[in-house]
Structure prediction request, 150 residues.
Amino acid sequence: MDKCDPIGEGLAKRGHEFGSTTGRARRCGWFDAAALKRSIQINGVSGLCVTKLDVMDGMESVRIGVAYRINGVDSDILPVGADALTDCQAIYEDMPGWSESTLGVQCYEDLPKAARNYLERIAEVCGVPVIWFRPDRIAMKPLFCVIRFE
Prediction:
Protein backbone atom coordinates (compact mmCIF):
# COMPACT_ATOMS: atom_id res chain seq x y z
CA MET A 1 0.00 0.00 0.00
CA ASP A 2 2.25 2.70 -1.31
CA LYS A 3 2.09 6.20 -0.03
CA CYS A 4 2.68 9.27 -2.18
CA ASP A 5 2.97 11.50 0.86
CA PRO A 6 5.61 12.50 3.44
CA ILE A 7 5.41 9.08 5.13
CA GLY A 8 6.15 7.22 1.89
CA GLU A 9 8.86 9.71 0.99
CA GLY A 10 10.42 9.31 4.45
CA LEU A 11 10.39 5.51 4.18
CA ALA A 12 12.04 5.76 0.74
CA LYS A 13 14.70 8.16 2.01
CA ARG A 14 15.55 6.19 5.17
CA GLY A 15 15.53 2.90 3.25
CA HIS A 16 17.65 4.28 0.39
CA GLU A 17 14.90 3.22 -2.02
CA PHE A 18 16.10 4.86 -5.21
CA GLY A 19 16.65 3.37 -8.65
CA SER A 20 20.30 2.42 -9.14
CA THR A 21 20.32 3.67 -12.74
CA THR A 22 17.88 6.57 -12.74
CA GLY A 23 18.13 7.67 -9.11
CA ARG A 24 14.35 8.01 -9.14
CA ALA A 25 12.66 7.45 -5.79
CA ARG A 26 10.73 4.20 -5.48
CA ARG A 27 7.15 4.26 -4.27
CA CYS A 28 7.14 3.08 -0.67
CA GLY A 29 4.44 2.53 1.88
CA TRP A 30 3.07 0.35 4.61
CA PHE A 31 3.34 -3.42 4.56
CA ASP A 32 0.45 -4.79 2.47
CA ALA A 33 -0.40 -8.13 4.07
CA ALA A 34 -3.67 -8.44 2.15
CA ALA A 35 -1.87 -8.28 -1.22
CA LEU A 36 0.88 -10.56 0.05
CA LYS A 37 -1.70 -13.15 1.12
CA ARG A 38 -2.87 -13.36 -2.50
CA SER A 39 0.73 -13.83 -3.65
CA ILE A 40 1.30 -16.52 -1.02
CA GLN A 41 -1.84 -18.28 -2.23
CA ILE A 42 -0.83 -18.12 -5.91
CA ASN A 43 2.86 -18.91 -5.50
CA GLY A 44 2.88 -21.36 -2.61
CA VAL A 45 5.18 -19.20 -0.49
CA SER A 46 6.25 -20.98 2.71
CA GLY A 47 7.91 -18.06 4.52
CA LEU A 48 8.79 -14.38 4.34
CA CYS A 49 12.14 -12.61 4.68
CA VAL A 50 11.89 -9.19 6.29
CA THR A 51 14.70 -6.69 5.87
CA LYS A 52 15.02 -2.99 6.55
CA LEU A 53 13.09 -3.09 9.80
CA ASP A 54 15.39 -0.26 10.90
CA VAL A 55 13.71 2.06 8.40
CA MET A 56 10.85 2.33 10.90
CA ASP A 57 13.06 3.02 13.92
CA GLY A 58 11.82 6.14 15.68
CA MET A 59 8.34 6.07 14.20
CA GLU A 60 5.60 6.70 16.75
CA SER A 61 3.28 4.23 15.06
CA VAL A 62 3.46 1.75 12.18
CA ARG A 63 0.73 0.30 10.03
CA ILE A 64 -0.04 -2.99 8.34
CA GLY A 65 -2.49 -3.18 5.46
CA VAL A 66 -4.69 -6.06 6.66
CA ALA A 67 -7.66 -5.92 4.29
CA TYR A 68 -9.47 -4.12 1.49
CA ARG A 69 -12.98 -2.75 1.45
CA ILE A 70 -14.77 -3.40 -1.84
CA ASN A 71 -18.28 -1.99 -2.22
CA GLY A 72 -18.73 -1.94 1.54
CA VAL A 73 -17.49 -5.51 2.08
CA ASP A 74 -14.17 -6.20 3.84
CA SER A 75 -11.83 -8.82 2.41
CA ASP A 76 -8.62 -9.92 4.16
CA ILE A 77 -7.08 -10.87 0.80
CA LEU A 78 -6.52 -8.79 -2.34
CA PRO A 79 -9.40 -9.33 -4.76
CA VAL A 80 -8.83 -10.86 -8.17
CA GLY A 81 -9.33 -8.80 -11.31
CA ALA A 82 -8.59 -5.27 -12.40
CA ASP A 83 -12.22 -4.20 -12.08
CA ALA A 84 -12.35 -5.20 -8.41
CA LEU A 85 -9.07 -3.40 -7.70
CA THR A 86 -10.40 -0.06 -8.91
CA ASP A 87 -12.98 -0.07 -6.13
CA CYS A 88 -10.65 -1.15 -3.30
CA GLN A 89 -10.06 0.93 -0.21
CA ALA A 90 -7.17 -0.09 2.04
CA ILE A 91 -7.86 -1.04 5.66
CA TYR A 92 -4.94 -0.57 8.02
CA GLU A 93 -4.15 -1.84 11.48
CA ASP A 94 -2.18 0.66 13.55
CA MET A 95 0.49 -0.62 15.88
CA PRO A 96 2.81 1.15 18.30
CA GLY A 97 6.16 2.07 16.83
CA TRP A 98 9.49 1.94 18.64
CA SER A 99 11.97 4.62 19.56
CA GLU A 100 14.89 2.26 20.07
CA SER A 101 17.30 1.53 17.23
CA THR A 102 17.36 -1.91 15.66
CA LEU A 103 20.78 -1.26 14.15
CA GLY A 104 23.36 -3.64 15.55
CA VAL A 105 20.75 -5.95 17.08
CA GLN A 106 21.87 -9.52 16.46
CA CYS A 107 19.23 -11.50 18.33
CA TYR A 108 15.50 -11.42 17.79
CA GLU A 109 14.93 -11.26 21.53
CA ASP A 110 16.96 -8.03 21.68
CA LEU A 111 14.69 -6.21 19.24
CA PRO A 112 12.36 -3.64 20.80
CA LYS A 113 9.14 -5.32 21.97
CA ALA A 114 7.05 -3.27 19.53
CA ALA A 115 9.27 -4.37 16.62
CA ARG A 116 8.85 -8.01 17.65
CA ASN A 117 5.09 -7.49 17.88
CA TYR A 118 5.10 -6.02 14.37
CA LEU A 119 6.95 -9.02 12.90
CA GLU A 120 4.75 -11.46 14.79
CA ARG A 121 1.63 -9.71 13.51
CA ILE A 122 2.91 -9.96 9.93
CA ALA A 123 3.40 -13.71 10.43
CA GLU A 124 -0.07 -14.04 11.94
CA VAL A 125 -1.88 -12.05 9.23
CA CYS A 126 -0.02 -13.70 6.35
CA GLY A 127 -0.19 -17.20 7.86
CA VAL A 128 3.45 -18.07 7.12
CA PRO A 129 6.67 -17.85 9.14
CA VAL A 130 8.74 -14.67 8.99
CA ILE A 131 12.52 -14.60 8.86
CA TRP A 132 13.98 -11.33 10.12
CA PHE A 133 17.40 -10.35 8.84
CA ARG A 134 19.61 -7.99 10.76
CA PRO A 135 19.58 -4.33 9.77
CA ASP A 136 23.01 -4.65 8.16
CA ARG A 137 21.34 -6.98 5.63
CA ILE A 138 23.69 -9.86 6.37
CA ALA A 139 21.83 -12.90 5.18
CA MET A 140 24.71 -15.29 4.60
CA LYS A 141 25.30 -15.94 8.29
CA PRO A 142 22.72 -17.76 10.41
CA LEU A 143 21.76 -14.59 12.26
CA PHE A 144 18.06 -14.76 11.69
CA CYS A 145 15.03 -15.83 13.59
CA VAL A 146 11.97 -17.63 12.40
CA ILE A 147 8.74 -16.24 13.79
CA ARG A 148 6.04 -18.85 13.41
CA PHE A 149 2.36 -18.27 13.13
CA GLU A 150 0.55 -20.66 15.47
Remarks:
- The CA atoms of residues 86 and 138 lie 39 Å apart.
- Confidence is low (pLDDT under 50) at residues 139-144.
- Strands lie at 31-32, 48-50, 61-70, 73-75, 88-96, 130-132, 145-147.
- The longest helix spans residues 113-126.
